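Annex B. Sample input.
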Amino acid sequence: MVRMSAEERRESVIRAAMSEFARGGYYGTSTEAIAKRVGVSQPYLFRLFPGKKAIFLAAAERSMEVTRRTFEEASEGLEGEEALHAMANAYTKVIAERPEQLLMQMQTYVAVAAAEQAGDQELGEAVRAGWMRVWDAVHLPLGADMDETTTFMAYGMLVNCLVAMGFPSDHRVWEGLYPSARAKGRLEK
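Annex B, continued. Sample output.
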């Protein structure tokens, strides 16, 4: 059996943390659950990351990075409405195939609010910076149009909420979204 390097193990911790935090949130997820999922001891986990907050931050940053890359890859060489629909379709596919990606985003927003209420600004600053990279990845293909970008991101947040609440794809709440945001059948659980 080949031993993983510390960097490979760190990567496996981030993936496991995304899954665990997506389901349990920051406060409901133990580092023990993450370590168990990866197959390492908690002390080893803390050799890779200084604490639970650092693990959560790495998972949150990865979640934002995945979303940013999804939009960039989908819109490559496209602009305007073509880019908009390509990005919407790509994102819909990601959240349908990897629901933990969506749930991690939702947990991240809640964790930022809780951390800032407790006086901790670090998580919020990092998440807002990542979110702005996502914004920029959408903004340029949409012609750097503030209204188009705002509308696209607003639809995306609505889709996030509807999927997180478990609305089936044939529910009437989806009817007001543009067709690529609806993606009939792809959002079924």
